[in-house]
Write a structure and sequence with these properties.
Shape: elongated
Largest sheet: none
Number of helices: 14
Number of strands: 0
CATH topology of the largest domain: MetI-like fold
CATH superfamily of the largest domain: MetI-like
Strand content: under 5%
Number of domains: 2
Order of helices and strands: HHHHHHHHHHHHHH
CATH architecture of the largest domain: Orthogonal Bundle
Distance between the termini: 8 Å
């Protein structure tokens, strides 16, 4: 497949995923129980009462609820093409602006956790794979155990131990570097377990390959063989996993932000879900879908950087 054709296929696939996510979020808004106009009016007045048709008519006209479902769907897609995610029912502001104001801390936490997870996984695997049996088994057991840890449980444990008891880090609301350590570690440890498992399996297979034996015969050290020859090929499955992991970390960051009372989309999403602010919740869902798509495109590019043979094969 030519390079241009392959890029076009990937882009079309990404657009298809975004369209499916947009369609899903739209129809979720439409099928949820309760009248949307009544919900909006009750939020504006602070009263939860039954509304007459005359009271609801201006709301239906303002948001286009009186149009057919297909017409509303077309208008919704047109808005997305222009970057319009609608207006928040609760805050009366554009959803795009609300998300833009809060997405920065969440993205910072997500990227930091991904880098930290890779660092933990690589150090653990390189230093323990194919070592003495107790060392290798202990490291492998840690990877299995950590991969199954729930973010909220791990976050509470780290918060109690390092913030409340030892007082090394702020308990809540930390926006500086010290406030980033515990939330990022909470997200990174389970992901490091996943990355470590797949990288360890691949690295142990590669250490038996002829090219590794040849490198050692030329006098290269064990660490040099692992870093310069085996590791480049061993991380390919983990890179594939990173495409999924980046989106999963972004979703997990929403939960972790609540545990550590950090600014970000976590507080926004919980408040919107409690108030049934459907446009704001849908906007966050669309953002997560976009991150998944972009992450997988970046993973595809990373393949050819890590292993140039793939680039030559595609050419």
């Amino acid at each position: 497949m030519s390079g241009a054709r392959r890029v076009a296929t990937r882009v079309l696939g990404a657009l298809g995923v975004l369209w499916a996510a947009a369609t899903f979020t739209f129809f979720v808004q439409s099928v949820l129980p309760g009248d949307r106009a009544t919900l909006i009016l009750n939020q504006e007045t602070g009263q939860t009462i039954h509304r007459s048709a005359g009271e609801l008519a201006p709301i239906n006209a303002r948001y286009g609820f009186q149009d057919s479902l297909f017409t509303q769907y077309v208008h919704y897609l047109k808005g997305l093409l222009h970057g319009d995610l609608g207006r928040s029912y609760q805050l009366k502001e554009p959803v795009t602006r609300l998300i833009a104001d809060q997405v920065g801390p969440t993205l910072l936490l997500t990227v930091t956790a991904l880098v930290l997870a890779w660092a933990i996984a690589l150090v653990l695997v390189i230093s323990t794979a194919r070592r003495r049996r107790p060392v290798s088994s202990l490291a492998s057991s840690f990877e299995v155990f950590s991969a199954g840890l729930p973010h909220y449980w791990l976050g509470v444990i780290l918060l109690v131990v390092f913030a409340i008891n030892l007082q090394w880090f702020p308990v809540e609301g930390g926006t500086g570097l010290t406030g980033l350590v515990l939330p990022a570690t909470t997200l990174a440890i389970p992901l490091a377990g996943f990355l470590g498992q797949v990288t360890r399996d691949e690295l142990e297979k590669l250490l038996d390959q002829p090219f590794v034996t040849s490198a050692r015969a030329r006098g290269m050290s064990d660490l040099g063989v692992r870093l310069r020859h085996a590791l480049r090929h061993a991380v390919l499955p983990a890179i594939t996993l990173s495409g999924w992991a980046l989106g999963a970390l972004f979703s997990g960051a929403v939960v972790v932000e609540l545990v550590f009372a950090r600014p970000g989309l976590g507080q926004v999403l919980v408040s919107a879900a409690s108030a049934r602010d459907i446009p704001l919740v849908s906007g966050v869902v669309m953002l997560v879908a976009l991150i998944y798509v972009v992450a997988n495109l970046l993973v595809d590019l990373a393949y050819t950087v890590v292993d140039p043979r793939l680039k030559r094969a595609r050419a």
